[in-house]
Amino acid sequence: MKPALGLALLTLATVPALAAGLAGQEPGPVMRGVPNPAQARTDYQLKCQGCHHPDGSGNAVNTPPLADETARFLHVRGGREFLGQVPGVASVDLGDERLAQLLNWTLYRFDPQHVPADFKPYSAAEIAKLRKTPLRLDRLEVRSRLVADLARAGLAPK
Predict the structure, then answer these.
(1) Do 77 and 124 share a structural domain?
(2) Is 63 left (phi over 0), alpha (psi -120 to 50) or beta?
(3) What is the pLDDT of residue 115?
(4) For residue 1, what are the CA distances in angstroms to 7, 8, 14?
(5) Could you tell me if 7 and 55 lie in one domain?
(6) What is the mean pLDDT of each run of 10 residues along the chain (158 residues)?
(7) Do 22 and 64 have their domain in common?
(8) Contact 90, 131 (CB under 8 A)
(9) Do 5 and 52 fall into the same domain?
């Protein structure tokens, strides 16, 4: 290989990592359905972390954790819909496209080990549909049923 070509290839290979480093971020895994991870992170900080905390830990009183739990719901019937219908998701003041991205980002950020290998990212159209039937008073009952289903499948959260 000619030295100039090798340098050009090396430069092309390192530019994304360098740009991420300059932006204060390390390059991370590919997050399907998250075209703009920086926007998703900002949306999380502004719309979610007040209750779910920066690390996704939530609290024992009224906010379930996201960390090591959220993607588990994708493994039981009704769990995918549940994630798009909980009050904090269904009623947040974001457009459907940004909300789909935020939900996809949240799954990869806080529970990547439980994201199914065949995971189909949430789309704006799917989010729009789910938001039309938000869970309100029945959210705790639905969550309890889903957690019981997870336990039967050996996937119960801590």
Answers:
(1) yes
(2) beta
(3) 97
(4) 10, 11, 18
(5) no
(6) 46 41 55 97 97 94 92 97 96 98 98 96 98 95 96 89
(7) no
(8) yes
(9) no
Taking a C-beta distance cutoff of 8 angstroms, is the pair 135, 85 a contact?
yes
Question: What is the distance between the alpha carbons of residues 130 and 135, in angstroms, rounded to a whole number?
Answer: 10
- For 101-123, letters b (16+ CB in 10 Å) and e give bbbbbbbbbbbeebbeeebebbe
Given a contact cutoff of 8 angstroms between Cβ atoms, the answer to whether 78 and 85 are in contact is no
H, E, C per residue of the chain: CCHHHHHHHHHHHHHHHHHHHHCCCCCCCCCCCCCCHHHHHHHHHHHCHHHHCCCCCCECCCECCCCCCHHHHHHCCCHHHHHHHCHHHHCCCCCHHHHHHHHHHHHHHHCHHHCCCCCCCCCHHHHHHHHCCCCCCCHHHHHHHHHHHHHHCCCCCC
Reading the block at residue 136, the tokens are: 């309100």
Domain with 91 in it: 33-152
Encoded amino acid at 75, one letter: H
